[in-house]
Amino acid sequence: MDSESGRRIYEDLGVNPVINAMGSQTVLGGSRLSPGVLRAMQDANRYFVDMKELLKGSGEAIAGMLGAEAALVTPGCASVLALGSVACMTGHDRGRMEQLPDTTGMRDEFLIQSRQRYKYERCVTVYGGKLVEVGDGDGTTASQLQAAMTDRTAGLLYVAPGGGPGVVPLEDAIAVARDRGVAVIVDAASQVFPLDVMCRYPRMGADVVGYGAKYFGACNSTGIMCGRKDLVDAAFVQGFIGFETEERRTVGRPLKVDRQEVIAVTAALKEWFEMDHEARFADHRRKAVQLFRSLNGVPNIQVEHVTEKRGLGSGLLIRFDGKALGKSLSQVLAELKEGRPSVVLGNSANALHVSVPTLTDEDLGVVAHRLREVLGAT
């Protein structure tokens, strides 16, 4: 689809299309699908399929790529946390499955370290789980984690990559949890590169691991659960296909994926593992250099290259003198957003962050023009 048709399909709905210089963001629609992934989705559209077979077959293929016991395509990484919590609470017990979200008589508590509190933690509470904070503002220790594990503890929620001051490293957290028979759920949403890091979590013994598939080029609406086979299988039964085929009143019916989406995740992950990532990084550098040169002569700005080791947010950091320009950071962002198409950038402190991986060559020209215009180039 050309740019004019791409704009029109949104503008016909009264929606302003966006040039995304923020990266793979849920609020901007996720990722740009590659021609291969789009073709796979289109090919999948030709036939219908037994979704139970498709989810099983794709799960086996994905598990093989990730080095996990089992895997399941889900509607996003957040659903991995929700379905993972369900699997930890009920296992394969049919009575407990149908009892949710009432967790009476079940292990329903999920531990989280104080310095890992974040808004997505609520996902493990969707179907009745209860969060228990361990530690305080100074952090959490392994002994505190161990002491917090009781006969009500169903799991430990861990945000990857973790580590840092006051956070028990994942290896140690897994060891403590394993000693107490507690499952570890790892939110590794964007931890998709380097590839050995992506594969690290299931291989080191995490029981449930979640990835956002948008980060490796699949649909915004998709994710991957992988890990221990018994828990992934329990999540499978609790999910939409289990509800439809197992004749159980389970809770995961709203978490449905389409056959084309399942194929897209499988195709995108295969591309990701076969991709020449050095060539990907080189293309990002080329784009960043092109944009850097395009900003030559703009007054009162400082521009530096930003290289993110995963290549998900590489680009430029642009600092500007708001007093000399007569505009605040929020005003600059608002002016960029008001254009047609809108240009959306990241920001931090008094700086703009242009992420180039999601930009086409055509986009680079538009972004450069809009930046020069808004930042007062003569």
Characteristics:
378 residues; alpha/beta; Aspartate Aminotransferase, domain 1; Aspartate Aminotransferase, domain 2; 2 domains; seven-stranded mixed sheet; five-stranded mixed sheet; 15 helices
Report on this structure:
The protein has 378 residues and is of the alpha/beta class. It folds into two domains: 3-30 and 276-374, Aspartate Aminotransferase, domain 1; 35-274, 3-Layer(aba) Sandwich (Aspartate Aminotransferase, domain 2). The chain has helices at 3-11, 35-44, 51-66, 77-90, 94-99, 142-148, 170-179, 195-203, 229-238, 240-245, 259-274, 277-294, 322-325, 329-338, 361-374, and strands at 18-21, 70-74, 109-113, 130-134, 153-159, 183-187, 208-212, 223-227, 301-306, 315-320, 342-348, 351-355. It has a seven-stranded mixed sheet with strand order 2-8-7-6-5-3-4, sandwiched between helices. A five-stranded mixed sheet has the order 1-11-12-10-9, with helices on both faces. The longest helix is centred in the last third of the chain and has 18 residues, at 277-294. It is globular, with a radius of gyration of 23 Å. The mean pLDDT is 96.
